[in-house]
Amino acid sequence: MRINKFIAHAGVASRRKAETFIKQGLVTINGQVVTDLATLVKSGDRVEIEGTPIYNEEKVYYLLNKPRGVISSVSDDKGRTTVLDFLPQVQERIYPVGRLDWDTSGLLLLTNDGDFTDKMIHPRNEIDKVYLARVKGIVTKENLRPLTRGVVIDGKKTKPARYKIIRVETDKNRSIVELTIHEGRNHQVKKMFEAVGLLVDKLSRTQFGTLDLTGLRPGEARRLNKKEISQLHNAAVIKQR
Question: How far apart are CA 24 and CA 35, in angstroms?
Fold first, then answer.
């Protein structure tokens, strides 16, 4: 097995992140630094990242209903609450699949499967990510229509999105909009709405692929079953064709 794939399978990081570790000279096999991504790991080899041994673990997959005010990280140097604080019983070295902003709530996947993570977050696989946004102002089809063609944020055009106007609260001068995207760029949903003149003041992710938050209150998590994992894998494979 190639070294980058071995690291990803061990649940330490995604394959892309593993490649970064290798290129930076942080990975050793049997005490020797390796920088070639094609290096193979054989049975019995000792693999380390910055001196820490890497072992393959059983692959696990969790769904968390992330509350607002929680960091999508495995640790925080400021001592703030992270998503792992809600899964203290999990022994495997899991990490978030992508991220949700500190002030964004909702569906977040966590796993120790690097290949799965790459499949879920790569835009080419077009995995639906559905958000419910409360925005200031009264929305119309006209001011939301640019989202379906893609808007430019941070100098790059987004892929076409789908929207649904859930509710318009005229008395409070705000609207509730559902937005479906396939990408996961930094603050993307907020910036997309800003691009059409709307300010998001509350945001939650309600669906990821075939998964939703049914039965989970904020802060609650559950392990995915084999059928759910298979459906997500299959969705990514179908989109690649």
Answer: 7
Per the DSSP assignment, residues forming a β-bridge with 162 are: 180
> For 200-226, how does the pLDDT look when each residue is reduced to its tens digit (9 = 90+)?
999 999 999 999 999 999 999 999 999
Contact status, residue 55 vs residue 12, Cβ threshold 8 Å: no
Q: Cα(93)–Cα(90) distance, rounded to whole angstroms? A: 8
The pTM of the full predicted model, rounded to 2 decimals, is: 0.80
- Cβ neighbours of residue 11 closer than 8 Å, sequence gap 6 or more: 56, 57, 59, 92, 93, 94, 95, 111, 112, 113, 114
Residue 101 annotated among the catalytic residues of the structure: yes
Residue 237, pLDDT score: 61
Contact 177, 200 (CB under 8 A): no
The Cβ of residue 183 has, within 10 Å, a number of other Cβ atoms equal to: 18
**CA-CA distance, 180 to 88, in Å (whole number)?**
31
Catalytic residue among 36, 45, 85, 101: 101
Distance CA 178, CA 166 (A): 7
Tokens of 176: 């509730």
Q: Is residue 19 classed as helix, strand or coil in its secondary structure?
A: helix
Q: What are 118's two structure tokens?
A: 């790459």
Chain centroid to CA 187: 12
The residue among 4, 227, 240, 216 whose CA lies nearest residue 124 is 240
